[in-house]
Structure formats: C-alpha cells, structure tokens
Amino acid sequence: MPAKGWIEVSHIYCKGCELCISACPPKVLKLDIDKLTSKGYHPAFIFKDGCTGCAICALVCPDAAITVYREISKAPTSMAGGGD
Amino acid sequence: MDATIANPENLVYSRPKGFTGTPTHYCPGCTHGTAHRLVAEVLEEMNILDKTIGVAPVGCAVFAYNYINTDFVEAAHGRAPAMATGIKRVLPDRVVFSYQGDGDLASIGMAETVHSAARGENITIIFINNAIYGMTGGQMAPTTLPGMKTTSSPNGRDVETQGYPIRMAEMLATLDGAGYIVRRSLHDPKNIRLAKKAIRIAFETQVHGLGFSMVELLSTCSTGWGVTPVQSLAWLEEHMIPAFPLGDYKIAPSVAALKF
Amino acid sequence: MEREMWKGNEAIAEAAVRTGLEAYFGYPITPQNEVLEYLSHRMPELGRAFVQAESEPAAINMVYGAACTGARVMTSSSSPGISLMQEGLSYIAGTEVPMVLVNVMRGGPGLGNIAPSQGDYNQICKGGGHGDYHPIVLAPASIQEAVDLMPVAFDLAHKYLTICTILIDGSIGQMMEPVQLPEMQPVTRKEYDWAVSGAKGRKRHVLSSIYLDVPTEEKVNLRILGRWREAQANEIRFKEYFLEDAEHIVIGFGTAGRIGLSAVRAARALGLKVGLFRPISVNPFPYKRVEELCKDAKSFLVVEMNTGQMLKDVQAAVRNRIPVRFYGRLGGVMPFPDEFVHEIQEMIRNPGKPEDDPADLWYLRMMAR
Q1: Which of A63, B53, B203, C204 is deepest in the core (most CB within 10 A)?
Q2: CB-CB contact of C71 with C21 (8 Å)
Q3: DSSP secondary-structure letter at C203?
Q4: Sorting pLDDT into bands at 50, 70 and 90, what band is A72?
C-alpha cells in the first residue's frame, strides 16, 4: 500500500500562489475559495484522498507554509501468506 | 483524507529553524522565498546558523534579514561582496554570505563581484537571476533577454542600443580565485533539489577555505514578467534556460574531492 | 621612544597600527599611496587584515563590513577618492558604526592635481555624504600632531559611534619630519552589544541604515544628533600662539595654520602684535573660543588653501563684531609665510569694516595679480 500522507498549510504564510497545487503529483490540492487569510489570500488545502506525504509541495513552497506528515503503511507488502 | 496522521512521529517536513517567524513580503510564488528557504535549510543542516553573518542587498531581498535567522548587515547597492570581504577578513572563522539580485550583483556591483571572486575571498554568494529589476518596478537588468519587454525597454530589449545579457557564472568561472561556480534553477522540484545540493557544496567550499563560491539561481518574477506564478515557471524553462544554461562552470579539484 | 625620521603618510599608518588597527582597506590615489603601501606589508607582518580594494567604493564598503563587527578599522583617500567614498560614509554614519578616515586633500575640483590643498573642508565637515550627520574632523598641522591624534581618532570614533577623520593635505602626507611614535598597543576588540559576529549564545544582531518607518527614521536622526551634540560639547580642540597681548589674530588650520605660525613669528620680529589661533577640531568647530577672542582683538586674518571655507565658520562666530580679512591660495598652490606677513601688515594698516566681505576684497586682489 502506498504511504498515507497529510499536510497542514499555514494561513500565516500561504499566499495562494498555487505552485504546490501545480506540483502535487496526485493533484490533491486546491485553493480554498471559501477562506481568506489575514492578508487576503485564498490558502491551499487538501481537498481529496491520495496524499502520499511526498513533500513536493513543501519543496516548491516559497513561503515554507507547509508541514508534511507521512505514515508508512503497516500492512505486509507481500501478498504471499495471506492478506487482510 | 486522514488528519490523524498529523503527529510528531510522522513529521516529514516543517518550517526550517533557519527561518524567523516573519511572513515574507515577496510576491506570491516568487522564488526568492524558495531560495531563502534553501539557504535556511542548508545553514541549519550544517549547524552553522549561529556562526553565520549574512549580507543583504538592495533589491527585493533588501529585507532578507527579516527572514533568515542569522546576524545580518545591510549593504549599499552592489557592495555586498565588499562588505562580506570586510567582515570575513576580520572574522575568518565565521561563515559570511551575500544574497544578491541581478542589478546588485551584475550591474552596479559588477566590480565588487568580479574582484571578490578574483581575490578568492572565502565567501559565498547566492545570486538570484530573474532577468529583471523587481523592487524598483520592473526595469531592464544586465541579464534581461534580447527582445524582453521591461519598463525601461518597453519595445523589447534592443541589442543594438541596449546590448546583450551577461552570463555571470561563465564569466566568473574564468577566475583562478573561484572555487565553486554553478548555475541552477528553481522552476521545478528536481531542479530545486539540485539547487539545494549546490548551495550546500558552496557553503562547504567556504567552510573548508577552498575559495570563492557562487550559486546562480535562475528565478521567477511573475509580477515583473506579467504572468501568474505557475506560468512564470514555464516562462523560465522556455526562455531563460536556453540563454543561461544550467551546469557546473567551475569546481576546483579540492571542492570536487569534498566529502561531507 | 626616540625620535625618528618618518614620512607623514607612513607615520600616520604606523601610528594607527600601534593604536590597535585591526583592518585596513584602501585604494591607491596620490598623494596618500604610501599609507596603503606601508600597510600592505605592515599589516600582514602582524597578522592583521589588509586588502587593496578594486576601487574606493569597494574599499569604503569593506570598511563598513568590518566596522559592523566593532573592529578598529581605517581607510585613507584623497579628494576624488573621498567623493567616491561618500555613499559608504553615509551608510556607516546611518548604521552608527565606528571608523577612522585619513583624508589627504589635493588640488581640485575634478581630477585637479596632486599638490596640497584644503579645498575639501566643506565636503567632509558638512557630512562627507548624503544625510544629516557630522563626522568628527581633526586637522593636524605636523606629522607629530597627526601621530598623536591617531589614538584619539579611534577612541572618538568608538566613543561616539561615528566617522572620525584625520584631515591633512598632500604636504603633510609627503613631508618627512622627526617623529616620536607611541608604544605598540595590543589589538583589543571591544564587545559591543550591537556588533555582528555570529549569534552564538545570544539574540541575533541586524545592522542596517534603512528605516522605512518615517517616525522611526526621525528618532534615529535625533539619536545620531544627540551623540553629535555631546561631541560638540566635549571634543573641541585648538592651539593658541602669542595671544596674550595680540591685537590681531591669524586663524588657520592644518598646513595653512602652520605657515601662519611662521608668519606670526616673522611679524612679531617686526614688532607687530599678532598671534595665531589654530583649530585642531574643525568639526566640531571652536565657535565659542573664536567668539571670545573677538572681544580683545582688533581684526582676524583667516588663511586657507581654498576659496574661504573655514572662513564661513569663523564669520559665524564673529557675527560682524570685528573686521575679518581673508587670504587664500588655490588649486595646489602653497602660500609662503611672507605672503601672510604682507596680509598682516595690510590688515594693520587698513583693517576695514566689520561688515566688509573678506572674500570680495581677496578675490579682487587675486584677480589683480
């Protein structure tokens, strides 16, 4: 199973530049049009499943606004010997 | 989507300690922020934040000292390498770097840049090349491309009257005092990773006393170029990389042999 | 210590070394090249920092960097080079860090010549760069005096966190005189609570001269002014010769003052009751003392190697109470004592009125030569 990831985007630093949205491989990010940061930007957020915690969003973020978490799957990777 | 993953033992990346808590004033998507972040990460990873002194330029990054968490001084336009020289000569065991844009480094500061490299000053320069003057409203820079429209080349840079762009990495690589001169880019994840590696080697060059080091970083200016941040990455790839080829222009053998 | 023959520029350089100079950054320009050349071997010999920069702007900015660490740092230059350094001087003043500048004036304006002049008095006394600040300017009249003022210059620069200038001309830089140099002092770097050195064990320090917040910039200007006012109150220096019974006083600084002393001695030998007042601190200027001297003197003769720059400071103190006469030579021409004696005699014969413009009368005489 692929790793499961999660990110937190800080509303203090995010400027809604969309570089993370563009760079995200599974395309799980978009701007939250319903929210405004204190500087008037729409911040980025995870809107669907599929984040793998690859941290490419944090790599491209010019404002270091993103904190990335990744949980390595605990399921056995081999199908032999039965699965769950 | 599972937010319960967000606990300390699953942490992969968080804001570097080399950053202060101050939000930057840079335009959304400006790769100044990315470059700052890479410098902050490298200094933290090398554990030299508390023996580093930065020299801020005049340009968009004039307030770099508000964001990178080290001692800092503010230089006059173009004079950062001279200030860095003054500091490094009296404090040779500290790490001294300057962070400069294309006007600061290649226009008014050209002499200071060339001579600090020629003298082989053990300083590190992070050179942000976005082919335009940002802070003052988008004028032509020494690195502006032929035909490129700026506020002081409104019909596009006319090489007949306004000359050609300058390739700094190639030029400085001809100097014997230079230990590590490379050009990288910040337009996509792979190149950002390569840029970070180069910044690390540059600072290691300084720490090991192996001469002048400079990392030229092709960067975006979506405001100056008149495109969105995401579009600016493509603009860089399409227009700037052909004019300013990425690569290693000078790696002294002693630098190539470094292991860290 | 015994007296030795030293060239002015080299004695000044060695005096700086002996008072704990840690770093020198300079650029060649005549007539002060010997400062740079001497230090190019003396500083490395002592393991201290020396760089011949690529230009004067580069040199002053290297000084700026080193000054931010609190080190004792110096540069030297001459007229056109000082012009090039003005941006850096303003930054140093605005960042409120200390440095010593040796300013060896030559003929100007423009490229001028390499002969001695005093034509840059206004340039350095009124700031030496853009903005509202005042360097402390000391004007020795001999090599010994310059050597004696070197430790003073560093102490004042570090006490008032400002630029302290030793203002001489090419003749003092080039001449050779017997000099007694001070004992070698060790290099001691003071721990300043503002200096940059790597933020180990403390909060980080940021040194800058930019203050976008306008009220804050005003406060900074007032802070700089406050230290200047302290210097005005405490750092007045001058020398007086034959003033006890003087009826007429010659006023001159530096080399013009020294030639004035020869003239005063010659005039005294002729039975004329003249004396010399020689400001040593030309910034802050000894206005109060000049004003006091107005009470008993019949007239002043201001002598300079320019068109009348210190003259304005004298006039500000005199305020038309007594006649002021002016005599100047320009463009690198050095006056002889007998020219001053002639002026003294003319002044006694024909003192003029307090409201006469001394520059007018002098100019007419110069054009009539």
Answers
A1: B53
A2: no
A3: -
A4: confident
Q: How far is A13 from chain B (nearest CA, A)?
A: 6
Find where tokens 């082919």 sit: B131
Name the nearest CA neighbour of C310 among C148, C156, C123, C132: C123
Q: Is C59 on the interface with B (CB under 8 A)?
A: yes
Nearest to C81 by CA among C21, C124, C22, C126: C124
A11/B contact by beta carbon, under 8 A: no
Alpha helices in B135-228 (DSSP H): 159-162, 168-172, 189-207, 222-225
* C-alpha triplet C289, C294, C296: angle, nearest 5°: 110
CATH class of A4-71: alpha beta
Element at C193 (helix H, strand E): none
**Chain A closest-CA separation from residue B119 CA (Å):** 34
Region A61-76 average pLDDT: 86
Contacts of A51 in chain B (CB under 8 A): 1
**HEC states along B67-114?**
CECCEEEECCCCCHHHHHHHHHHHCCCCEEEEEEEHHHHHCCCHHHHH
pLDDT in tens, B206-252: 999 999 999 999 999 999 999 999 999 999 999 999 999 999 999 99
- What ipTM was predicted for this assembly? 0.94
> Looking up tokens 């180069």, which residue turns up?
B198
Residue in C57, C198, C210 closest to B79 by CB: C57
Q: Kindly tell me the burial class for residue C319, based on how many C-beta atoms sit within 10 Å of its own C-beta (0-12, 13-18, 19 or more).
A: exposed
pLDDT, tens digit, for every residue of A10-46?
999 999 999 999 999 999 999 999 999 999 999 999 9
Q: Where are the domains of chain B?
A: 23-256
Q: Does B89 touch chain A (CB under 8 A)?
A: no
Class of the B23-256 domain?
alpha beta
Contact C65, B85 (CB under 8 A): yes
Does B2 contact A8 at a Cβ distance shorter than 8 Å?
Answer: no
The length of chain C is 369
Task: Give C-chain residues touching B90 at CB under 8 angstroms.
Answer: 22-23, 49, 66, 69, 71, 73
Q: Please give the domain boundaries of chain C with CATH numbers for all domains.
A: 4-234 (3.40.50.970), 239-367 (3.40.50.920)
CA C313, CA C301: separation in Å to the nearest integer? 13
Q: How far is B241 from chain A (nearest CA, A)?
A: 18
A31 shares contact with chain B (CB less than 8 Å): no
B80-125 pLDDT tens trace:
999 999 999 999 999 999 999 999 999 999 999 999 999 999 999 9
Contacts across the A-B interface (CB distance below 8 Å) = 102
CB atoms under 10 Å from CB of C240, counted, come to 14
Residue C165's Cβ-side half-sphere holds a number of Cα atoms within 13 Å equal to 31
Is C256 in contact with C305 (CB distance < 8 Å)?
A: yes
